[in-house]
Design goal:
The chain is mainly beta. The strands form two sheets. A seven-stranded mixed β-sheet has the order 6-7-8-9-4-3-10. The longest helix has 7 residues, at 33-39. It has one helix and ten strands; from the N terminus they run βββαβββββββ. Bound molecules: zinc ion (2 copies). One zinc ion is lined by residues 30, 32, 34-35, 44, 114.
Length: 130
């Protein structure tokens, strides 16, 4: 029963809240320019999960989609602007914006993506490129 699942993450304003039926296996840093703009940050923390592991607890009316490239939609809270996840609806994967997870600090960071687009003066962590 989804009502019994504990809240795993939420947006900044708390309007969007969700549970997960299983935690993500890993977190990735994405340095691409689209993520930099979408997060307003040096890089994005992303955590791919199977879409059916995501259980929305509140805020369906706040979720807003932006198609940032063909077939790729970035979903955010329209009240506070927090990015929640991105997905390609044609695939079974949903990529959480992992900073919204309560236990993001416990998740292993496995690799970094698009490090060629990283801020030139930003020291990159010693992670493999994926
Ligand atoms: Zn919000
Ligand atoms: Zn990216």
């Amino acid at each position: 029963m989804s009502e019994a699942l504990p809240e795993a993450g939420r947006c900044l304003c708390g309007g969007v809240r969700y549970a997960l039926t299983a935690p993500p296996e890993a977190v990735f840093l994405c340095h691409c320019r689209s993520c930099q703009r979408a997060q307003g940050a040096a890089f994005n923390l992303s955590a791919p999960i199977p879409r059916d592991h995501f259980v929305l607890l509140a805020g369906a009316e706040l979720l807003t989609r932006f198609e940032s490239s063909p077939g790729k939609e970035r979903v955010f809270c329209r009240r506070c602007g927090s990015p929640i996840y991105a997905e390609r609806p044609a695939t079974p994967q949903r990529v959480l914006r992992a900073a919204q997870l309560h236990d993001v600090g416990q998740l292993p960071v496995k690799a970094q993506l698009h490090s060629d687009e990283a801020l030139p003066s930003l020291p990159l962590p010693p992670l493999p490129s994926a």
